[in-house]
Amino acid sequence: MPAKTKRKEKETYSISELAKEFEISTRTIRYYEEIGLLSPKRTSGNQRVFTKRDKARLKLILRGKKLGFSLSEIKEMIEMYDLAGETEQIKLTLRYGEKKLKEIEEKIKELEMLREDLLAIREMLLNRLKELEGQK
Predict the structure, then answer these.
(1) Domain boundaries, position 41
(2) Model confidence pLDDT, tens digit, residues 55-100
């Protein structure tokens, strides 16, 4: 049985290739570039050329957004790697993660209270409806 050949990953990507792969708009990628989250190289024709590193950063940005981090928090976490190394990046990410977990726990409590309020109002309205229908 022949050995599987490992598919070689591309070295560079166009903006449309990344947009398609991550299912986002090219405008989103350009915005991330505008605010300094991505810094693609340019061709002589001024077209953006994204590296594997840019692709990895984009993946981190999108994961951070999905987890509820702001773009400024994501930028700070990503830049920490270049500024102070992986250890400091992990520490910062953990701090932001703890903060986000607290926010989520608070939101869950608020939603549970809202649910209880809605259930109580529903019960009250159902009882009133029964009273009104019984008066007919």
Answers:
(1) 10-66
(2) 999 999 999 999 999 999 999 998 888 888 899 999 999 999 999 9
Q: Encode burial over 59-94: b for 16+ CB neighbours within 10 A, e otherwise.
A: eebbebeeeebeeebbbbbbebbeeeeeeebeebbe
User: Residue 72: inside a domain, yes or no?
Assistant: no
φ, ψ for residue 99, nearest 5 deg: -60, -45
Angle, helices 26-34 vs 52-66, to 10°: value is 100
Same domain, 95 and 125: yes
The C-alpha angle 101, 102, 108, rounded to 5 degrees, equals 90
Contact 50, 12 (CB under 8 A): yes
